[in-house]
């Protein structure tokens, strides 16, 4: 099954988070940026992938268009492992993390989509999972301007049936407001996105000790300081989650050997697609670390994350950003109901995106790459 063409898309879909967003991760979040990859084959089977986008969408797209896509026509779409190895090695001079890893993640997702469609099986079955119609989800809130709006957002999430809520707040008053709004019956997690030194992180764990956090996510800068994070884990008294920004399997091994994580959070659009998620899941089991995959997107990576969760971490809550999209590229597959999300039953990822939605929200014209004649 030969790859005959490659298409790339960049969409931005507005969303409502219930308030004006506060700056987070260098962005004023007003819309969901998604970088799409479509692989076409001579068997008439197409596969869809997603590279991590958000604020680096233009950079991820540039790698797809200028380096990855030109290397694909004529390659065997069934050779998931071989393509992954050869292209990872070819691109290694550009770093083991960042936009090249994101581009390779998109490719891996798309090739697994093709494999599932060719076998007429959902991806979760190819990964060895048992049938599941739904997964328990947690509401992953963006950052709000003040504690009152944090509390209001938490109340909305609880009213929609969520029993797990994650914040992206970095101040004690905002986090305390969330705990007060949720009461004791809802688990509360906090992702702070690597803001603190070791000493600052330890100070914050003391401030947060009475708020009964299920985990504290990425409290230390830089994310590669595994020994520093291990100290916060040991002395801070709050379970530590990390791994969204890990530079591959060996970075996870270094973190596990340092005893830096209670919870591993690889991201399918960053770490290398489902192929890398399989590796990290096995490593986490060997070290006794809980796997709770990261998911902060609504493209093909969202569907891939559903399949990965269902197969590799069925008891872990699925991360669903607590926003309402103006339009869904996957219809009702992106909807959460009573704190659960549906798991696709169709072949591959389970559904192709709605092309009318993609075209309506294009940031720029899509590009097509095919074999030279």
Automatic annotation (TrEMBL):
A Pfam family per the record: MR_MLE_C
Keyword hit for Magnesium: yes
Matches recorded under SUPFAM superfamilies: Enolase C-terminal domain-like, Enolase N-terminal domain-like
GO biological process: amino acid catabolic process; carbohydrate catabolic process
Cofactor(s) the protein needs: Mg(2+)
Domain Mandelate racemase/muconate lactonizing enzyme C-terminal: from-to ranges: 147-239
Gene3D superfamilies referenced in this protein's UniProt entry, alphabetically: Enolase-like C-terminal domain (3.20.20.120), Enolase-like, N-terminal domain (3.30.390.10)
UniProt cross-references to InterPro entries, sorted A to Z: Enolase-like_C_sf, Enolase-like_N, Enolase_C-like, Mandel_Rmase/mucon_lact_enz_CS, Mandelate_racemase_C, Mandelate_racemase_N_dom, RHMD-like
Entry keyword set: Magnesium, Metal-binding
Gene Ontology molecular function terms on file: hydro-lyase activity; magnesium ion binding
Protein name according to UniProt: Mandelate racemase/muconate lactonizing enzyme C-terminal domain-containing protein
């Amino acid at each position: 099954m030969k790859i005959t063409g490659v298409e790339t898309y960049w969409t931005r879909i507005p969303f409502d988070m219930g308030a004006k967003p506060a700056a987070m991760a260098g962005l004023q979040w007003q819309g969901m940026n998604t970088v799409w990859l479509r692989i076409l084959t001579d068997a008439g089977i197409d596969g869809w992938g997603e590279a991590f986008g958000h604020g680096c969408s233009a950079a991820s797209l540039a790698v797809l268009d200028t380096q990855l896509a030109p290397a694909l026509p004529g390659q065997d779409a069934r050779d998931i492992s071989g393509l992954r190895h050869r292209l990872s090695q070819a691109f290694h001079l550009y770093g083991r993390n960042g936009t090249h890893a994101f581009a390779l993640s998109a490719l891996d997702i798309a090739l697994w989509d093709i494999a599932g469609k060719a076998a007429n099986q959902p991806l979760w079955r190819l990964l060895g999972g048992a049938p599941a119609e739904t997964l328990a989800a947690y509401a992953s809130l963006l950052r709000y301007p003040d504690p009152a709006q944090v509390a209001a957002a938490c109340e909305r999430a609880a009213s929609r049936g969520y029993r797990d809520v994650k914040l992206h707040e970095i101040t004690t008053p905002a986090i305390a407001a969330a705990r007060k709004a949720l009461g004791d019956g809802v688990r509360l997690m906090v992702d702070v996105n690597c803001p603190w030194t070791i000493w600052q992180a330890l100070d914050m764990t003391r401030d947060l000790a009475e708020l009964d956090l299920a985990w504290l996510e990425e409290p230390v800068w830089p994310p590669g300081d595994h020994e520093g994070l291990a100290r916060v884990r040991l002395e801070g008294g709050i379970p530590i989650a990390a791994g969204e920004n890990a530079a591959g399997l060996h970075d996870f091994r270094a973190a596990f050997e340092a005893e830096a994580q209670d919870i591993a959070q690889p991201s399918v659009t960053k770490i290398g697609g489902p192929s890398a998620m399989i590796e990290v899941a096995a490593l986490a089991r060997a070290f006794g670390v809980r796997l709770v995959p990261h998911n902060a997107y609504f493209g093909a990576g969202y569907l891939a994350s559903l399949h990965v969760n269902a197969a590799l971490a069925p008891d872990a809550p699925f991360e669903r950003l607590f926003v309402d999209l103006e339009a869904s590229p996957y219809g009702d597959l992106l909807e959460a109901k009573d704190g659960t999300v549906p798991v696709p039953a169709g072949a591959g990822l389970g559904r192709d995106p709605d092309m009318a939605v993609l075209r309506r929200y294009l940031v720029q014209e899509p590009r097509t790459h095919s074999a030279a004649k």
